[in-house]
Amino acid sequence: MTGSPDVDHLLERARTWAAQDPDPTTTAELDQLVVQVQGGDQAALADLEDRFDGTLEFGTAGLRGALGAGPNRMNRVVVIRAAAGLAAHLRAEGRLGSVVIGYDARHGSETFARDTARVMTGAGLRALVLPGPLPTPVLAYAIRELDCVAGVMVTASHNPPQDNGYKVYLGDGSQIVPPADAQIAARIAAVGPLGDVPLGAEGTLVGQSVVDGYLDTVAGLAGDGPRDLDVVYTPLHGVGSATVVQVLETAGFEAPRVVAEQEEPDPDFPTVAFPNPEEPGAMDLAMALAEKHGADLVVANDPDADRCAVAVPTPLGWRMLRGDEVGALLAHHLLSTGHSGVWAASIVSSRLLGTMAAAAGQAYVETLTGFKWIGRVPGLVFGYEEALGYCVDPEHVRDKDGVSALLLVCELAADCKAQGRTLLDVLDDLAVRHGLHATEQVSVRVDDASLIAAAMHRLRDTTPTELGGLVVLGVEDLALGSPALPPTEGLRFRLADGARVIVRPSGTEPKVKCYLEVVVPVAGRDVEAARISAAGRLDALAHDIRGAAGL
C-alpha cells in the first residue's frame, strides 16, 4: 500500500491526529487502522478515508455523528475543539459568565462533558456541570435558572447507539440559530493545535437543588383534579425514568408501571433496533405490558427525554398517537385550563393548532422545523412539532420537554377517565368542531445524495398541476424565504379542499421527506367516515408526490 502519494498523505494525517488525541481508546483504534492500511487492507483504507473525509460539521443542531477516531467522527479531539470555538465565540461577544453542561448516558457523554468544562475554565469562563446523566430539558431549565451565558448538552437524542452529539444553547435558553452557528463554526475552524488549547479545572458540580427545582416546577404544571390513571412508561434505555417517576408522584399520580427491560440507562439500547419511539417495534414491550395489566395509557420518552410518545387502547389493540394528535390534545388541554398567548408549530406540523388558536381568539405562528425556532417565538405559550416535540412551559424551558408534556398528557387522560371518556373521544370532538386534520409522511431514503437535489429540481422545474386528484392552487419555494420565515430548502404546495404537501430534504439523514395533510369535514359526527375518506386522499397524495419527485 506504500508508494501512493495519496495514501501516504492519509497515513501521515492519521499519525498526526493520533499524536494529539488524549483518548487512548481512539488512539489505539487509529493506530490499528494505520497498520491494516499499510498491510494492504482495502476495507481499512476505505474506513480511514471516510474518517478523514472532511470534518464533522457544526451547525444549528451542534454536532452529531458516529463515535470514533478522526475529524469526521465524534471524539475528544473534536469535542475539545468545538468547546474551544464556543468559548472563543462567547468571549468575542463579551459573554463572560457561566456555562452549564449536561450529558446523557451514551458512550463518551460524561467524558465529553468534563472536557468541555475544562476548556471553559481554561478560557476564563465558569463551568457548571450537572450532577449526573439527566434529561436534556433539565439542562435547558438550568441555563435560565442559573443565569448562564450558554449551555451545552452532550447527547445524540434518539440516534443509533454508535452516535453521540453536542447541542449548544445560548443564554436565553434556546438552541442556537444563524448567524451564531456559523460564527461558532468559524471559531472552531480557527482553533490551532490541540496542545495549545488551555485546559483548566473540571468546573463546579451543580447542586441537586437545581434538579429538584426542575422537578417541582414541572410537577406544579398539573392542577387539581382526578389522578386515577394506570400508566405504563418506558424511557427506552435513556435517562428519563427517575425524573418521570418523581414528577408523576409529586403531582399526585400513582407510580407508573415502568418497562423493566428498558428502565435503566444503557448506551447499547439492547431491546430496540432504533431508540426512537416513532420507529416500528420500539414501543412493543410497553404496549405488551399495558395489555397484560389493562392499563389506561402508555407514555414514553426518547433516550434524552426531550420527546414524548403516547399510545392508547382501542378495540383493535394499542395504537400510537401521531405527534400531531398529541400536539392537538396538549393544546386543547392548555386552552381548556385558561392558558393564553402565542401558539406555534413548525411548518410541517398539522395546521389544526392554528385553527384551534384562531377559534379561541389567540395568535398563532408558523416556524421552520426545530425548537431552535419554536422556542424563540415571542409570547409563546405552547409550541410543538410533529416529531413528538412539545413545549408546554416556555417560561422555564424554551425547548421541547418530554417530561412536562408527559405529565400533562396524563392529567388530561385522568380527567377524561373520570368523565368516562378517552383521549380518542377528545380527538373526535376536535375533528367535529374543526374538521378532521389527517396527516401522513412519505420518507424516501437514498444511497446517492445527488438524487435528493434532483428530486427538488424536478419539482421546481416541472411543477405538478394536480396531486392526489386535487388541483394545485399554488406552490411556495421555501428556499426564497419570506417576511415570516427564513430561507430553508423545501417546497410547499397548497391544494384544493384545504390540503397541503411540503417536500424537504432531511436535515440529518439522506432522505427526502414529504409531509401530507388533508382536511375533511365531519358530517353528523361521523368521524370514522371522515377518517376513511382522509386515508384515501392521503394515499393518493403519497402516490402522486412520489411520482412527481421521481422517487
Characteristics of this structure?
six-stranded mixed β-sheet; six-stranded antiparallel β-sheet; 17 helices; 21 strands; 20% strand
Give a summary of the structure in a few sentences:
This protein has 551 residues and is α/β, with parallel strands linked by helices. It has helices at 5-20, 24-38, 42-51, 76-92, 109-122, 136-145, 180-189, 208-219, 241-250, 284-293, 323-336, 352-359, 371-374, 402-418, 423-434, 450-461, 527-549; strands at residues 63-66, 98-103, 126-129, 150-154, 163-170, 204-205, 231-234, 257-258, 297-301, 308-314, 317-320, 342-346, 363-367, 380-385, 389-391, 436-445, 466-467, 470-477, 491-495, 500-505, 511-520.
What does this structure look like?
This protein is globular. The chain has 551 residues and is α/β, with parallel strands linked by helices. The strands form four sheets. The chain has a six-stranded mixed β-sheet, sandwiched between helices. The mean pLDDT is 96. A hairpin with a 2-residue loop joins strand 10 and strand 11 (317-320). It has helices at residues 5-20, 24-38, 42-51, 76-92, 109-122, 136-145, 180-189, 208-219, 241-250, 284-293, 323-336, 352-359, 371-374, 402-418, 423-434, 450-461, 527-549, and strands at residues 63-66, 98-103, 126-129, 150-154, 163-170, 204-205, 231-234, 257-258, 297-301, 308-314, 317-320, 342-346, 363-367, 380-385, 389-391, 436-445, 466-467, 470-477, 491-495, 500-505, 511-520.
